[in-house]
Design a protein that fits this description.
Elements: E1 6-15, H1 16-29, E2 34-39, H2 46-60, E3 64-70, H3 79-87, E4 91-95, E5 116-119, E6 123-127, E7 147-152, H4 155-165, E8 192-199, H5 207-218, E9 222-227, H6 234-245, E10 249-255, H7 261-268, H8 271-276, E11 280-284, E12 292-296, E13 300-304, H9 310-314, E14 318-324, H10 326-343, E15 344-346, H11 357-376, E16 387-390, H12 398-409
Parallel strand pairs: 2-3, 3-4, 9-10, 10-11
Antiparallel strand pairs: 1-7, 1-8, 2-5, 4-16, 5-6, 6-7, 8-14, 9-12, 11-15, 12-13, 13-14
Helix pairs in contact: 1-2, 5-6
Region (Disordered): 391-413
Active site: 113, 115, 120, 290, 292, 297
Pfam families: PLDc_2
């Protein structure tokens, strides 16, 4: 399957769980025939229980529901929690579930990291937000800053087709005759052009990275990238620096209050190279940044699940939406520029590692690693992950039920 640009879409930016969860839950409540949901993390907390409740109600009124969770990201849902859904008819699958080895999870590589919801072929959601309370602003200082989009229009069919073709037993439909479209200047306000893209370990290994590279090559005035786990390949770093050197204002927002300290350590190894090349780097200090968004000039935007790190660019299953629309571009620009002004610290010379032999040596190692990482991936575990469906709980045998009923009436079975 290969998607083309679709015109005439209505797209809404959703910030954090405060906006995302009500929109998703309302769409599921209104579902008439089908709900398809994929996510990396689903926790059994107050947010997870609300998702559970809305799915259960939909299934009980006859909506066909299929859920796909990652075996690494969501290993701890209780049997009772899952069993209630499967008993109601929900098809519940795990991507690459494997038992711990000496208490450690071994399914580290090739995670199903997508976050997609499709409801009734009418509305879809794509982004980086999981189902956990830490995506709500009232969670506290550790609440994550993140984004997703709600989509209506022709591109929903592409997202639906992608999800369906990745279900077990569904072969991809290859339409070689399908005309390829290019994004053009959009003159209809509120009707965005959109392209659904994804990364897998087969025919679409570098699709998301290629679109980032193309965006940086085409930029004329401005690029803003906000990315939670920033440790990209050499080509992308080189493209960012080249864009800045030809006069494009390139601003990068990374974590300043990371959920994992190694994230900042990795990103800061790249500061010298980028800052010296003219890239403006801002550390988001309000809380952990979990977003994966970018914009270019006054029309190009991407929102999705893909980080700019080795896992997302070379191993994980990811999905992004690319949008050509001035109005949506301005909405995201307003959001990111406010974050830069209010919640970020710009990286200056004092924060760039000093030029010592030790730091030079580390930089050489890092750049060679980034340059050759795609080839090194071949040395990592190359098993083929499988989808495992959770069966409904075993129901009481009819004979046992007859005995109970007979005991209540005093009649022998």
């Amino acid at each position: 399957m290969k998607c083309s640009w679709q015109s005439g879409n209505r797209i809404k930016l959703l910030e954090n769980g405060d906006q995302y969860y009500p929109a998703v839950f309302a769409a599921i409540e209104q579902a008439q025939s089908r709900v398809l949901l994929e996510t990396f993390i689903w926790f059994e907390d107050n947010v997870g229980r609300k998702l559970h409740a809305v799915l259960l109600r939909a299934a009980q009124r006859g909506v066909h529901i299929e859920v796909l969770l990652d075996g690494y990201g969501s290993p701890d849902l209780s049997d009772e929690f899952v069993g209630e859904l499967t008993s109601a008819g929900v098809v519940f699958r795990y991507y690459d579930p494997r038992p711990p080895l000496f208490g450690m999870r071994t399914n580290v590589f090739r995670r199903m990291h997508r976050k997609i919801v499709v409801v009734d072929e009418q509305v879809a959601f794509v982004g980086g937000i999981n189902y956990s309370a830490e995506h709500m602003s009232d969670y506290g200082p550790e609440a994550k800053q993140d984004y997703a989009v709600q989509v209506e229009g022709p591109v929903v069919q592409d997202i639906l087709q992608f999800v369906v073709e990745n279900l077990p037993g569904k072969a991809a439909v290859r339409r070689w005759w399908k005309r390829r479209h290019r994004a053009e200047e959009n003159t209809k306000p509120g009707e965005a052009q959109a392209l659904f893209i994804w990364r897998d370990n087969e025919e679409h290994r570098d699709d998301i990275e290629r679109h980032y590279l193309k965006m940086l090559a085409n930029a004329r005035r401005e690029v803003i990238i906000a990315n939670a786990y920033f440790f990209p390949g050499y080509r992308l770093l080189h493209a960012m620096r080249n864009a800045a050197r030809r006069g494009v204002r390139v601003r990068l927002i990374v974590q300043g209050e990371p959920d994992m300290p190694i994230v900042t350590v990795g990103a800061r190894l790249l500061y010298n190279y980028l800052v010296k090349g003219g890239v403006e780097i801002y550390e988001y200090r309000r809380r952990p940044l979990h977003g994966k968004v970018a914009l270019m000039d006054d029309h190009w935007v991407t929102v999705g699940s893909s980080n700019l790190d080795p896992l997302s660019l070379s191993l994980n299953l990811e999905a992004n939406l690319i949008i050509h629309d001035r109005e949506f571009n301005q909405t995201l620009r307003d959001n990111l520029t406010a974050i830069i002004a209010e919640d970020c610290v710009r990286v200056d010379e004092s924060m760039v590692p000093k030029r010592t032999w030790w730091n030079l040596g580390k930089s050489v190692v890092v750049f060679h690693f980034l340059r050759h990482f795609p080839a090194l991936v071949g040395w990592l575990p190359a098993h083929t992950p499988k989808l495992a469906q959770v069966p409904p709980p075993v129901q009481p045998e009819m004979e046992t039920q007859d005995r109970v009923e007979a005991g209540n009436t005093g009649v022998k079975p």
